[in-house]
Amino acid sequence: MAGTTAQPSSRPRSWWGWGYADAHPDDAECAAMGALLPGTLPRPLPVPRVRDLRIGGPAAEPPASLAHLVTADPAVRAAHAMGKAYRDVVRALRGRPGRIPDLVAHPAGEQDVVDLLDWAGSRRIAVVPYGGGSSVTGGVEYRGDAHDAVLSLDLTRMDRVLEVDAHGRAARIQAGTPGPALEQQLRPHGLTLRHFPQSFEFSTLGGWIATRAGGHYATGRTHIDDSVQSLRVVTPAGVSASWRLPASGAGPSPDRLFIGSEGTLGVITEAWVRLVERPRHKASASLAFTGFRAALDAVRAIAQSDLRPANCRLLDAGEAALSGVRADGSAVLVLGFESADAPVDGLLDRAVALARSHGGRPGAGGGGRAGDAAVAAWRSAFLRMPYLRDGLARMGAVAETFETAATWDAVPALIDAVRSEVGAAAAKVTGYPATVNCRLTHVYPDGAAPYFTVLAAGRPGDEAALWDDLKAVADEVLHRHRATITHHHAVGRDHRPGYDLQRPEPFALALRAVKSALDPRGILNPGVLVD
Amino acid sequence: MAGTTAQPSSRPRSWWGWGYADAHPDDAECAAMGALLPGTLPRPLPVPRVRDLRIGGPAAEPPASLAHLVTADPAVRAAHAMGKAYRDVVRALRGRPGRIPDLVAHPAGEQDVVDLLDWAGSRRIAVVPYGGGSSVTGGVEYRGDAHDAVLSLDLTRMDRVLEVDAHGRAARIQAGTPGPALEQQLRPHGLTLRHFPQSFEFSTLGGWIATRAGGHYATGRTHIDDSVQSLRVVTPAGVSASWRLPASGAGPSPDRLFIGSEGTLGVITEAWVRLVERPRHKASASLAFTGFRAALDAVRAIAQSDLRPANCRLLDAGEAALSGVRADGSAVLVLGFESADAPVDGLLDRAVALARSHGGRPGAGGGGRAGDAAVAAWRSAFLRMPYLRDGLARMGAVAETFETAATWDAVPALIDAVRSEVGAAAAKVTGYPATVNCRLTHVYPDGAAPYFTVLAAGRPGDEAALWDDLKAVADEVLHRHRATITHHHAVGRDHRPGYDLQRPEPFALALRAVKSALDPRGILNPGVLVD
C-alpha cells in the first residue's frame, strides 16, 4: 500500500467525513445508493461547510513562546472537532458538530509537547491528543465544560522515521507518522511494520499505539501491542522512556500501561517498533460455504492449526453480497498466506483442505488461485467502504459498524443475537427493514473478532440519537455474551458505558490512581477511560 | 514431562535446597564436584537441619474462624522462609536463613484468601504469597521489620483444573496447581499448556503468572503472559475478575497489570489459560560452531525467519562442556521443532541449512537427527543443574545463574562484558580462576535472552555477601548495555536495585499509585517492586 499513495498533506482532507474530500461520492452516487434503501431521503443532505458553523474566538491564548505552534484558524479547529464515526458525520451534516476546540497545536518535537502540557496544566486547558483523527469512538473530541478551554494536540508534524536498526529489525519512529509515510520511509530498508488497519492512509503510529489498533492481518501480531519494543511518553509528571527490549519479565510491563491509554495518561511521542522483512511469497484463495455455522467451524479449525494465515476473513452472505464478492447466499472465506522466506503454497493447500473438509467450495469468486476475484473485490470494497458510509449518511440512512471479540463458545450465539436484536431494533425505530451483516476480521485459537455492519433507513434529523439507541441495544447484547466492547477501535467516549461494565472494578480503581498520579490536573483527554 | 513425574506431595521436599530431598548429591558426590574447583572446602558443609534453627513462637495468632487454614509448625515455617536462589541455599547452609514467617496459611479457595487478607490487613501482618517456592530472586521471603508478623500464603491446596473448554482450547485452573498436576489433568483432553520452565516440577501456575515466567520454548509464547486469557485476583480492595477474551482493545489490558505484579497488588487465585494440542510431530538436531559470533549470527537468522523453532538454544563452549554435550571448544546450537498438525522435518531442514550457511556443523553431539545425543545430554543436564548447584554450595563454591535479554545490537558486547567483568570480579574476590558460561535460552527477531552461569571457588563463611558483590558487578554491566534485569526470573528482592534503575520514573509513580489504591495497608509482599 505504502508508496503508491500520495502523501496526505498534498490532497485536501474532508473536515466532516472520511479521508480525502475529492474521494467522496457525488450527489448522484449518493442518490443512487439511497434508492437501494427504502425510507431514505429523496436527495442528499448538502456537504456541510465550515463557514456555516458559528465558531467563536478561542477561550485561551497561548503564551508568546508557544504561539508559533498554535493556531486558532476556524477551518483547522473545525477539522479537529471530532473523529470519523457515523455519529460524528451526521452531527457535522446537521451543523451540530461536537465542541470545536479553541486551539490546535502542532508540536514539532517532544520538548514542544512538554511545554504545551505545562502551559495547559497551568491554565485548566483540556488537551485532546490527535493523530490522524480517524477515531470512530469519540476519542478525539471534548465533551462537558469542566475546563476553561480545549486544545487539540495534533502530532502530525512529528512524522519521521528517526532511526532504523535493520540488523535487529526495528525502527524508532515519531508518533505522528501516518501509515503511508511510515512505510515509505521503511521501504528502502526492505522492512515493513506490516500494520495495515482500514484507516491506514489517515491514522498514525501514535494513534495506533494509544488505541491498541488492530491491523489487517488475521493472525499473529493482530494488534500493534506486540510490535511495540519501547515507548517515549510525555506525561504531566515527566517523560516516560522504556528500554528497547525484545522481551522482559521485570515487573508489570510499563509499555502495556500506556498502550491503550488513549491519551489519558500521557502523549506518546515516539516508539521503537518491531519490523519484518517485506513478504516475497504470497498465495490466496477463497471458499464459499452454504451455511455460516460450517464456515465458522472451518475458520476455527484453521485458527487452531499451526498454519497462521495472514488473512482468514469470513464474510457472511450479506457482507459478501454488499462488498460485491458473491451474491448467491453463500458465506465466503478469504484466505491468504505471506512469507519473506519460502513459498507458501503448501500452507495454502493445507488451509484449503481444512476448509473443504468443513464444506467449503474453492474459488468462491471465480477465477484462479493467485488472482482470485473474490480477494480483489473484497480489498477494493474494504478501502471504499468508509466513503460509501458517508454517502449513505447524506441520504439520511444509518450506516455504521462496530466490532468485538469473544471466545469460540460464545461466537455463534453472539452473532445470531446481534443480527436479530440490533436488526429488530433498527427496523422498529426506523419503520423499515434493516440489514445487519457480519464478518470475522481476526481469528485466534481461542476465539474470533466479529465485525458488524448496520444498514437501515434513518430517522431524518435525528440520526445521532437514533444511533445511540441502536448502540445501547448492541452494547447490551455484547455484555450479555461477555464479548469485549471493542477488539480494535478503542473505547473513546462512545464505548465508555460498555467499558465501565466490562473492566474489573479493582482495575478501574487502579487506573484512576494512575491517572491522578500522572495527570494530577486532569487535563489529558478528559472523559476517556476514567473520570 | 507431566504424568511421568511423581506428585510433589508424595515425596519429601528439601526445606533448604532445590527440589526433592532425596535427589540431592550425597557427600561423596559433592566432594567429587568440589575437587574439580580449586579453592573449595575439603569436605561438604553439613545438610542443615530445621531443629538447629532457633524458631520462636509466632508473633500473631489467627482468629478461630481461620485457625484451620493456618499452621505454626516450625518445619513448615522454615520451608517457607525463602526461595531457592544460591543466596538462599548458602544462608540456610550457614544457619542464617531469612526471616522465618510466623505462620503459614493453606487456603482451600478464593474466599479463604479474601478472609486471610482481611485479617492480615486488620492486624498489620505482612502477607507473602507462595506457590512452589522456587523463586530465585528473593520473591517469597520477608525482609525488614515494618510489620507485626509475617504470614506465608501457600496456594498449593488450590491445585485443580476446574474447567476445560476443549472446543476453545482453554482451561480454568487454580493458581496453586504445580506444573505436573496441571499437565496431568489436561492430558486426558489431548491438550497442554506447554509451559515448561526449568522449575516445572515445583512451580505453580499462579507463580508463573505473578512472575511473568518463561517456559522452555525458544520462540512463540516464551512467557506465560501470552497464555493468560483471564484472571481472578484477590486484592485488599476487592476481587478483580477479567473477562475471558481471545483479544481486546478496551483500554490498557487489566491482566497485564497483574501479570508480573509478584504478589504486590493481589493474590492470583485462578486463571483461564490458552492451551494447545499435544504435539505429534517432532524433530531436533544440533550443530557445532567454531566461533561464538558465527553461532550468534546463525541464531539471529533463524529467529528472524518464519521458522519459529520450539527450541533454539545456543550453548557457548564452556556451557557445552559443563553440560556434557561437547568438550572440544565448540559452541553448540540445539534446534527442535514440534507440531500437532504436520511433519516438521522440512522446517528443521531449512533451519539446519541456515545454520550451516553460518558455519554450523551438523551432528554436534554425534548420532543421528532425531536421537541426537547432544539434545539428550542437554536435557538431562538441564534438569539436574539446580541440584548440582546446591552440592557445589555445600563445597563452599559460588554456583549461581542469572539471565537477561537485549536487542541484537547489544547482545555480543553484553555477553563479552559479563564474561570478562564478572569473571574478573569473581577471580579477584575468591583468589581463584572463575568460570562464566553463557547460553541463549530464548530468541526473538529483535534480540535474545542470554543466561549466565557463574562457577568459582567461594569465600567460605561469607558466601551470601560474596554473591552480592558479584551481582552488583553483573547488574552494572547489564545496566550499561540496557539489558533487562530479568527476562523470566522476576524481580523479587534481589533484582530490585537494577529494576529501579530500569523502569521509567513515571511508571514507578504509577505503580506506587496502584499499590496504594489496591493495597492501602501495604501488607502484600512488602519490598517487592514498590515500597
Question: If you had to describe this structure to a student in words, what would you say it looks like?
Answer:
The structure is a homodimer of 531-residue chains. With 531 residues, the first copy, chain A, is α+β, with helices and mostly antiparallel strands. The first copy, chain A, has a domain of 217 residues: Vanillyl-alcohol Oxidase, Chain A, domain 3 (3-Layer(aba) Sandwich), CATH 3.40.462. Chain A is 32% helix and 20% strand. Chain A contains 15 helices and 19 strands. In chain A, strands 12, 13, 14, 15, 16, 17, 18 and 19 form an eight-stranded antiparallel β-sheet that branches. In chain A, strands 5-6-10-8-9 form a five-stranded antiparallel β-sheet. In chain A, strand 8 and strand 9 form a beta hairpin. The longest helix of chain A has 22 residues. The N terminus of chain A is likely disordered. At the A-B interface, strand 8, strand 9, helix 7, strand 11 and strand 17 of A face strand 8, strand 9, helix 7, strand 11 and strand 17 of B.
